[in-house]
Amino acid sequence: MEGGAGQAIALWRLYLLRIVYAVMAGGIFATFWPDVLHHTPQFAAGQGLRASLLAGLGVMAALGVRYPLAMLPILMFEFLWKAIYLAAFALPLWRGGTMPADMTADMQAVLFVVIFVPFVPWDYVFRRFVLAHGDRWR
Question: What is the domain partition of the chain in residue ranges?
Answer without folding.
Answer: 11-131
